[in-house]
Design a protein that fits this description.
Methylamine Dehydrogenase, Chain H; 4-stranded antiparallel β-sheet
Length: 605
């Protein structure tokens, strides 16, 4: 009986939005941090962010997640106002409770220090904040006095307990309890309050806002102590989106749209150092977290920065990757590096063994990358910006000028000796070593292309549900055969030995043809189907098994020797379509989905 085991996940970056605060959560033991992406919660090891876990049980876009102080549970929330409480001990993350405290998106969550109560805030229809018991959902008072969307909430970690909340009405509300009730409204800010946080010792709390100001208050009475930085000028030159205290309550970090993070001495109320993160719009800082010895911040482009207190000019590490849906994938011939590309045109390369990664820099694609492949020291990519690019690998910079197509290249097939073929909407283009050497106008919309391993033939799939076989004579294409299929071709895969060609189709079918016998259908493969459109296919190195991925979130392994047997990996990418598959060995498979997770699997037949 076939078995499979997920061994590694390289996760997505935070999905950010300009001028909108973003929440990072920290493990009370200091080992992990967590954040939201799409319908998922990403948990990452802070020392080695390549080690990660993904929670995928929400049915709506997630907004915030926080660990309980006990470390045994996580509470996560979504745009529908649902709060799910699940354990951190079991790999399955067993659900303990689910509640809907408000009728709209939840912006922030906080646990009480005894891990018994949860307070939330957000965009409700009848109220903007609520506090309840995590096990029963019973209310713990009334969090009234908020007149607009509440962006941030916090719970005093020591007795007497207090709750603070701030939001779009430019006020910070102070509650006493439990049961909690309104005590006073603080109106020092002139614009949105983006973040409020108690110090770990509970003696003070800070509010920061879109006016670039921060204010320090007494944690018991809410008396104003001082303006952050001493007043006279704003703490930041732009809106402040987050703040986080040091574990000993003596220092604070703040992050801002002015593209900086600042470290403050809270005893002297003075700035200790300033971390300048760049000059581009994507360098705006939308979140920060002080987790043990680590200081983290999140940039608008989703990058997670590990700040260095001893050298503010350069982060210790930057976790990069994708925060737009991944659209395509390729693996180098030696299987050491994975390349992934997304809807924005960003391309990232990953070490298959360690997860070490970086983003290809320079002037690259400006739109979604539709196809990619690696051969002969080149990464060849096609994009909706109507171009094909050759980029030398290994390397961190794009190649020279893009090769402009007359119409959008929907797919690219990569061969040896610098040859590749672009399937464009109204032409098929042959390229060699970064130059366009032949163009064949076609009267069908070409959707995918492939080059036979022996370089003698080129396959082009059409939206008209036909497979076109061309002889490759030098740099010229000569049509020699047309094969009727059940659907438009979405992807090709030649077996490494060159004998078989598998065609993924919009009709849910996978047709495998014997190239050595004139491209006749291999007996039995006409029944190869998935539950939705097949998006990608890949042969293992021994040419014995084919993997296919689909919109149905599943991966299926097909045995050529037993065509009617299928081995299904259900929900391989939960709530996400599969967009790319590659084999590292006969028993190791890489998959990529629009959840932006790159997953490695051990397969046993």
């Amino acid at each position: 009986m076939s078995e499979y085991l997920q061994t590694t996940v390289f996760p997505a970056l935070p999905r950010t939005q300009r001028a909108t605060a973003f929440n990072l959560g920290g493990d009370p033991k200091g080992k992990n941090f967590l954040y939201c992406f799409g319908q998922s919660i990403i948990i990452r090891d802070i020392e080695n962010p390549a080690i990660s876990d993904v929670y995928t049980q929400h049915v709506a876009k997630t907004t915030v997640a926080k660990y309980a102080p006990s470390g045994f549970y996580i509470a996560s929330a979504d745009e529908h106002g649902k709060v799910r409480i699940w354990d951190t001990v079991n790999k399955e993350h067993i659900l303990k409770n689910e509640f809907q405290p408000i009728g709209g998106p939840i912006k922030d969550i906080v646990w009480s220090p005894d891990s018994k109560r949860i307070a939330i805030c957000g965009e409700g229809k009848e109220k903007f904040a609520h506090c309840f018991l995590w096990d029963t959902g019973s209310s713990v008072g009334e969090l009234m006095g908020i007149s607009k969307v509440a962006n941030s909430i916090d719970y005093r970690p020591t007795r007497p307990f207090r709750i603070i909340a701030g939001g779009d009405d430019s006020t910070t509300i102070f509650y006493e309890g439990p049961p909690f009730k309104f005590k006073m409204s603080l109106a020092e800010h002139t614009r949105f309050v983006n973040c409020v946080r108690f110090s770990p010792d509970g003696e003070r709390f800070v509010s920061v806002g879109a006016d670039g100001k921060g204010f320090i208050y007494d944690g018991k009475t809410a008396d104003l102590i001082a303006e952050l930085g001493g007043g006279g000028s704003n703490a930041h030159g732009g809106g402040i989106y987050g703040c986080s205290w040091s574990p000993d309550s003596t220092q604070l970090i703040t992050c801002s749209g002015d593209k900086t993070v600042k470290l403050w001495d809270m005893g002297q109320n003075s700035m200790v150092s300033e971390f300048k993160m760049g000059t581009a719009i994507e360098d705006q800082q939308l979140s920060c977290l002080w987790q043990g010895d680590y200081l983290l911040s999140v940039s608008l482009n989703g990058y997670i920065n590990y700040l260095d207190r001893s050298n503010p000019t350069t982060p210790i590490r930057i976790a990069k990757g994708h925060n737009q849906p991944i659209s395509s994938m390729a693996v180098t011939e030696d299987k050491s590096t994975i390349y992934t590309a997304d809807n924005s045109g960003r391309i990232t390369h990953w070490d298959t063994a360690t997860g070490e990664h970086d983003v290809i820099s320079g002037k690259g694609h400006s739109n979604k990358v539709l196809g990619m492949g690696v051969h002969g020291g080149n990464l060849i990519t096609s994009s909706m910006d109507d171009s094909v690019r050759y980029t030398s690998v290994p390397g961190n910079e794009y190649g020279p000028d893009a090769i402009t197509m007359d119409s959008t290249p929907l797919g690219v097939g990569v061969g040896k000796d610098g040859v590749s073929v672009a399937a464009c909407i109204n032409e098929v283009v042959v390229l060699r070593n970064g130059r366009k050497v032949f163009s064949l106008p076609v009267n069908y919309e070409a959707t995918a292309a492939g080059v036979h391993p022996n370089q003698t033939q080129v396959m082009v799939g059409g939206k008209d549900k036909k497979l076109y076989v061309y002889n490759l004579a030098g740099d010229t294409l000569v049509e020699c055969k047309t094969i009727q299929l059940k659907g438009a071709v979405t992807a090709f895969a030649f077996s490494p030995d060159g004998r078989y060609l598998s065609c993924a189709q919009t009709s849910r079918h996978i047709t495998t043809l014997d190239a050595s016998a004139g491209y006749v259908d291999v007996q039995g493969t006409d029944a190869w189907m998935q539950n939705a459109m097949v998006t990608c296919v890949a042969w293992n190195p021994s040419s014995t098994h084919l993997a296919s991925g689909s919109l149905d979130t599943n991966i299926v392994i097909w045995d050529l020797a037993k065509p009617y047997n299928r081995f299904e990996m259900k929900g391989a990418h939960p709530i996400s379509q599969i967009v790319g598959l590659e084999w590292l060995t006969d028993n190791k498979l890489i998959s990529v989905g629009t959840d932006n997770a790159i997953r490695q699997w051990d397969i046993k037949y």
